[in-house]
What does this fold into?
Amino acid sequence: MSELNDDQVAILKALNTLSEPAGCKVIGEAADMSWRSVMGKLRGLTKGGYVESPEKGKYVISEKGKTEIS
It folds into this structure.
């Protein structure tokens, strides 16, 4: 059972469609959310291990994140 809410799942699904590390604005466009709400949610997703940040301000989905939405 997932502890993630709909917004967090939308962010993971959006990240899963992107081919390279993306910033909040790009993720927000892909998830149909404002970049501000993406930014707030990414903190929790990163802390939970669902998202990784290979460089400052850019994010990719982790294996755990992929498992979560598969």
The first strand starts at residue 51 and ends at 55. The longest helix spans residues 35-47.
